[in-house]
Amino acid sequence: MSEIPNEKILTKMEELLNVASDYTRLKILYAIMDEDKSVSTIIEEVGASQSLVSHQLKVLKRANLVATHKEGTKVFYKLADEHVNSLLKVVQQHAEE
Amino acid sequence: MSEIPNEKILTKMEELLNVASDYTRLKILYAIMDEDKSVSTIIEEVGASQSLVSHQLKVLKRANLVATHKEGTKVFYKLADEHVNSLLKVVQQHAEE
DNA sequence: TTGAAATATGAACAAACATTCATATAATTG
DNA sequence: CAATTATATGAATGTTTGTTCATATTTCAA
Fold first, then answer.
1. Which residues touch strand D (CB under 7 A)?
2. Model pLDDT, residue B29
3. Are the Cβ atoms of A20 and B17 closer than 8 angstroms?
4. Which residues of chain A have a Cβ shorter than 8 Å from any chain B Cβ?
5. How far apart are CA A69 and CA A38, in angstroms?
6. At what angle do helices A7-20 and A82-96 cross, to 10 degrees?
7. Rounded distance between C-alpha atoms, residue A31 and residue A44, angstroms
8. A75: which DSSP letter?
9. Confidence of residue B18 (pLDDT cuts 50, 70, 90)
10. Which alpha helices (DSSP H) does chain A contain, by range?
11. What is the phi-psi region of residue A2: left when phi exceeds 0, alpha when psi lies from -120 to 50, beta otherwise?
12. A97 CB contacts (<8 Å, ≥6 apart)?
């Protein structure tokens, strides 16, 4: 029997879904799905402006969907955990049928 | 190797995630997760106004996340398919840790 | 057919948000 | 240091969206 989760959980769920539910951010998440990549690489692969990608990376980071590390002047982003992967897979399956 | 899905798929994914990413709609989805329920029952369990619930049910219906059938003056809503269940489970797991 | 119960719809509004443009900061190299 | 490359930040803006209030529609019973 699945009850409605409490407010705290629901709010967290809402936040995760909200962050994932954007065209540009979805593209970014896929871009860094298999290996971490620098911002400039992400910009290329996603095909959006430098500013937009940077802004959206910040949104993803604030929501803990991605993690970063620095190498010289470059910043590398990767998915924060496996849940993000699972989420994308489930949603993609739904979208593909 | 996971490539970035094409525009059509991404747009569908974005739509599904968008529709799911709302506090009221999440509550509604959970309310009808195990069995279909009438709008009045959903209103009670979700604890939102009649108008709001009705508006959000329409959003869920337009996006094909729920299906309906009528019995007299009552309208019953249920989840449209199993993907919605899986999606909620994955997201809830992420939110609960 | 009048009334009541259940659901849907439309207008209105504030709040949130994606994107762009311009500018700032940080690190590296000559 | 100056110049350049990589990334971040902030303001501005047009659009979308969640919610409320008021009203409409539908179905059934008396």
1. A 38-40, 43, 50-51, 54-55, 57-58, 68, 73-75; B 18, 21-24, 48-49, 51-52, 55-56, 59, 70, 72-73
2. 98
3. yes
4. 1-5, 9-14, 16-18, 20-23, 26-27, 30-31, 33-34, 45-46, 81, 83-84, 86-88, 90-96
5. 9
6. 70
7. 10
8. E
9. very high
10. 7-20, 23-31, 39-46, 50-62, 82-96
11. beta
12. none
Taking CB atoms and an 8 Å cutoff, what residues of chain A touch B1?
Answer: 34
Q: Give the mean pLDDT of B20-29.
A: 98
Angle at B37 (CA atoms; ends B34, B39), nearest 5 degrees = 145
Residue found under tokens 């190797």: B1
For chain A, how many residues are written?
97
Whether pTM > 0.85 for this model: the answer is yes
Residue indicated by tokens 């269940």: B85
- Residues belonging to chain B: 97
Stated in angstroms, how far is A74 CA from C25 C1'?
14
Q: For B4, which DSSP code? A: P
Express each pLDDT in B32-87 by its tens digit.
Answer: 999 999 999 999 999 999 999 999 999 999 999 999 999 999 999 999 999 999 99
Average pLDDT over residues B12-17: 97
Task: State how far residue B71 is from chain A, nearest Cα, in angstroms.
Answer: 24
